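Teaching assistant here, posting this on the class forum so everyone can see the example we discussed in section. The complex has two components, and the goal was to see what a joint structure prediction looks like when all of them are supplied at once.
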Amino acid sequence: MSSVAVSAGGLLTPLRGPWTIAWYTYREGIRKKTLVGFLILSLLVIFGSSFMGAFLNPTTVGDVEKDIDLKLIKDICVTSISIFGILITIFVSASAVPTELENRVVYTILSKPVRRFQYLLGKFAGVQLIVLVNLGLMGALFFLLLYFRQGVMPTLLLWSIFFTYFEFLIVSAFTFAISCTATSAVLPTIGGLFVWITGSLTEYLKDVGVRSGWKGWAGFEGPSDLMEHFSVEKLVGGLAESLFRVLPNLQEYNLKMQILDKPPNDPPTIDLIPQLIIYGLVYAASGFILAYLFYRRKEI
Amino acid sequence: MRQRAVNIALLFALLALLAIGTLQGGRLRHLRESERFYRWMDSVTADVYLAGEEDQGDIARRFSAQALSITADALASAAVPPTPASVAAALGSGAIGALSRPTLESGMPKDRELFRQVVASTQRALGGAPDTPEGDAEIVRLLGEGDPDGRAWALAKGPELAGARGDFHRYLRARQLAFARDVDIVEAQSSGVNLFNVFFGFRKVAANFVWLQVDKYWHMGMTHRMLPLMKTTVMLDPKFVDAYLVGAWHLGYNLTAGMGETKPQDKEWLPKHRALVGEKEKFYYLAVDYLDDGIRNNPREYKLYFEQGFVHYRNKIGDYPNAIKYLTQATRLPHERWVPRQLYQCLELNGQYQEALRGWRDYLRRFPDNIVAPRFIKRNEGLLEEQEGDRLLAEARAAEDPETRREKRQLAFRAYDKAKAIYREMEEAFGVGRMYRLEALTLAEEGRYLEAIALLEHARWQSSAFWEEASNLIIEYKQRAGIPLSTSEKKAVLRIQDEELRRRTLEQRLREESRE
């Protein structure tokens, strides 16, 4: 029995360091004024959305007035959670590593028996903790508002918030990777916004491919087709389509908005949920490995 | 050396993860594309069910803005706020169809053609006859019931419909589908780059704010400003069911509240709905179109079908067959308790007493505490007996053999007696009115017209539901007995003649249209 405990303790030892760093990152992060500002603003918008119904004049068509009021709350809250949440995610992910470089805390940490991988894992986990706590606060307020308004548990809302996190996770991982190459938080913040905007526009790379008339790499029909198939226009189209396939597509997470309009047992939604979770985790892992690759090469 | 090996290993891990991400992305894309295809099938299924068999030309006509030439925006830009009458006149030539029309690049939508392909493929996959009519196909049944076990979804994403799915996306890119009209599907995917996708959520919030403005204009009495904003709201958020419900209610009820009736000879032909319409009716059909738009975008929302069937087709237009169609579809989807009750009432109004009776009995079995169902069961039992009596009496009149005539008459009066016994049990105004009708009919059959008319004069004040029928019977008996008609009765006869003229004109138009 005691040998099992010892071996389990041995397995957990490498995680103790990252956990301490994560906890420290979290405690430091939630004290940041900008972050608290975003959070308070988002909570005000969410709370304020419940008064939007006051602008509606009473109608006589059954429960329509109540339904429109609920719709107003849902749309405003989901959008504000999405916007403020992504800003918080980018800001936290972009500043976690460079700040410690700026104030030289990283030298103290890495002089201890902590590997760079453990340090980065801890920082990344700390960032996720901050994002999750913020999302949880915003989601909880939204949940309570809806619960008190409609009187039933808004379970679909929980799924919506859950998806929002996976979108944040992807953006956070790639912003974190950019931050590992920088010495200040400015560049990673701009990079994070860029990741979010391009990730949301990935769908159009497909459109570029289709409009160029690109037939795919397998569409090459032999030497006679050489000039036609590999013209500059089509190669650009091919490149765009290849990028479309490789880059993360945040548009997929639109399900977070759509799920609120759909019936609870919608067959396509049930199929999409696990696939979207896997998708988010795979790209988050890619972002983290990229971050580690950058950080390994960094001279500290 | 070790550092380099670790770097290479990490690089491989990164590439492996990106490859997995690409594969996962491919799987998601397949599901998303299948989902769009599935939603389109859902939308077309609702249309197959509601519009029945029709050709591509019919769809093109329904979706063409040509039938109505002025846009709702033109109304908004009018310098002087128009009166309801002038709005109606303008709409007569324009905005009914202009509320939400997709621009089809080919002019002729491919929806039905593609849906036939889907039906044939699914029938093959499910082992049925491949040439099954669209309306009878299994896929229509599955989707019509809301696909509770996900079988239609399994087909939509499976290899059975791979060909049709490919064609769907090809047509979608070429903007040749009339029923795949959600903005994020058609515009964001078929047009150039825009920021709609980034700010997807804002679109819905914007729709809400536009709707608040519609509400404001309504309470300010600026109805001419409401129409384009109503159109904008549902374009921004095609899933805004309440905007469709309230918008249609404004169009069908509130805007027409102060309008007078149009004389039959002044009514205009509305080709899209194949109906002769006056000012009020134009708004009724505007509401119908608006709700149809909502149904196409939200084919699984029972409220839209209910509103269309009960509020507009039954209450406003009095088109019971269409009301039954929409209400039946509402009952096939998850719905509230009151929905079937309205369906059974419409069945009764349409003379389908047997179906109404079956429905009410089933309803009472499911909700034994309901106090309305027993009354309506009695009512339909009585009406069925009455209908049987009327049929036998008509046969008796037509029979040449005196023996057969006597026998049929006996049977008819036996049915009437049964109906009277039921009505007597009901103890309500409706039953009283029906009993008087049967009494009057018996008297008239014996040639005692004066007594029959006197009875009917009394009866029509006893039951409001019987008023019109009693008044018509009075005229009929007076004409049969050669008794002079009163002024109001003469007017009523002229009105009936006008209606007859209108009906003939309508049939003539329909014949001309089918020849074209």
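For the discussion questions: Chain A has twelve helices and no strands. Chain A touches chain B through 54 residues (CB under 8 Å). Think about how each of these relates to the inputs above.
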